[in-house]
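Final report, results section. Input specification for complex C-07:
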Amino acid sequence: MAYFHGVWLIARKDLVSESRTLERLSSMLFLALTVLVIFSFALDFSRHQMADLAAGVLWVTLSLSAVLSLHESFRLEREDKALWALRLAPLDESAIYLGKLLANLLLLGGPAVLTLLLGALFFNLDLAPAAAPLALVLLLNMLGFASLGTLFAALSSSTRRGEILLHLLLLPLSIPLILAAVRSTTPLLLGRGFSAITLWLKLTVIMDIAFVTAGILLFEYLTEE
Amino acid sequence: MNLALQTTVRSICLWAVLTLCMLASIHGVFLDAPRERVMGDVQRIFYFHFPAALGSFLAFAVVCFAGVSYLCTRQRRWDHLGRASAEVGVLFCTIVLVSGPLWAKSAWGTWWTWEARLTTMLVLWLLYISYLMIGLYTDSREQRARAAAVVGIVAFLDVPIVYFSVKWWRGHHPIILGRGGEGGLSPEMWPVVWICLVTFLLLYGILVGLRMSLARAEDIVLDMEEHLQN
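Structure output:
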């Protein structure tokens, strides 16, 4: 129990400090909005059958804006060596990882839902009938993305040009995640049932398990000084 | 015999064996192997394509193994092995990505298709290029080694995931192993495949060995630099 209490304390710390500035949320939302607008010029939403393309556009937008937000997640810990203090706490390293992951999941999930709603507005889509499965797809894929992102943000924040490194590492590694996300979102937007996406959801769950486990086991090696 | 001489003799022997294997492979591929009934001579690309693909998978498995060993033991030689193997793996992957489209243009009528295995190789290529770029963005050797080990492990974890996700997304690739089908090999082709496999494995081993000794030399120079600065 104490372990999970520690996880929650670390997550809450991040959420509280974010709630005071709203830096990450606002920059992620702003970038997502900008990318959506750029896509609308590039693809001409009024002419295309948007339900086919919308999932791809949305997930590219989400993953690009998520990398930006993830890089920030360890920046504060590196300033004034706050991470040392965290590591001195009587907590397992994996609890720090899981706490950070939980905070990142919430901080990515919030703007992701808003981006999805904005996308629905721009593409003229009706999300209501598929709201519950869409939320599940969003949650599972954001979990995978956040688990890899939290792991590598710990690395990227400790190097000089870390932000480039995070992009270089995170985007190729998450190609299967983005693929699965697009493949499971498209049938939902086209009004097909939940059964059309079970294969992709299973794959996403496998990826989540693999990436979270890797994060728990490997996190401590990336926070060493 | 002193150590330097011993090493020289050993490497000359290895290079000699490799040269012989390469000549035997080229002879086998162009003269011994029968002309494929449907695809014609273009099929001979396969003898380079397939061993390079297997070689790159082996290389990436070694990167993962070296990563785990480095994190457990913290010996620099594992870091050297990981980086050397990744470089050779990317090289082999590049051979696959170049030879695949050359063959596909003739067999499928198009340079590139988003076919499962071709796409998997492309994603792997991207993954391990990013692995090789870690060195550019880290500040110390120790940090680079730790980061590379972690990325090498996670990237290898990604290999089956990439393969299955792309396979469910797309698929049409000749089935080489198992059921015959379009790409089934005739019995006379197999010896040539084996010779080529041995050649590529030997090439992999020699290149990794060379790259590791270069990494060791780099490390010694850096150690001396640090020693002089302090």
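Chain A has one domain: 2-223. The CA atoms of residues 3 and 92 of chain A lie 8 Å apart. This concludes the modelling results for the funded period.
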